[in-house]
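Lab notes, practical 5.
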Amino acid sequence: MDVVVSGDFAFVADNWMGLQVIDISDPTSPTLAGTYTTPHDAMGVAVSGDHAFVAADAHGLVAINILAPSSPTLASSYNTPGGALGVAVSGDFAFVADNTTGLLVIDISDPTNLTLAGSVAWPGSHAYRVSVSGDFAFVADTWDELQVIDISDPTSPQRVGTATFGESARGVAVSGDFAFVAALGDGFQVVRAFQHELDLNNNVGQSLAVDGGSDTFPRARLASTQTAGVSWELSANGGWNWQAFTPDGSWNQFTMPGNELLWRSTHTGSP
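Output from the prediction step:
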């Protein structure tokens, strides 16, 4: 059902067969190193340090000591209310996709004593898989959705965004500004998860690239319906160099021409 790699071992959530530990030190000849039979179906797995954390469906989250990969042993467990299907670990917390009860945040700072730190649900929650990037958890919901959860305060996670697909979301991974979703009949979906075009602290907004070609821009002109309280800049080289422009429609030569045109505006408050 799930697999994660740590060092020379792959840890496989093998449904009713529990956790399988596979020695992959020779990738051409993987061998079984050890097993642990979980109390219920092993649906998801994450590894942190000397422990594997297994989402064991109706039995919740199971912490397994893997210090000796050939002989994994139970450290502790936490019986989640909804059915643990997926798990991701970041720092001292495990983030559990707990089916109908949404996302649970479990404190794993002491793997022998798992405790609930926080939780968040949404209408029709069917959390299946979870991936964490920075202060956000991305939950694949089998009711055709990707849920974005702010986990900057693990004790009070908050849902901040949703992307909807035509088919069940079954898996999610995040890299850079994008979330990559396995959406069953809708196939592979790429969602823009983050953007760096806004600097709210300094009231600056920046566009994405506004051209689709590769020609060099020697000059440009800018027109705006709003001029009071807004200063404008253009870049012809993707934001490496910025040049002030007056938004009156007149042409200006770029001091640093380039082939990727951007604009940005800085806003100051007014009555």
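Observations recorded by the TA: The chain has a mean pLDDT of 92. DSSP finds no helices and 26 strands in the chain.
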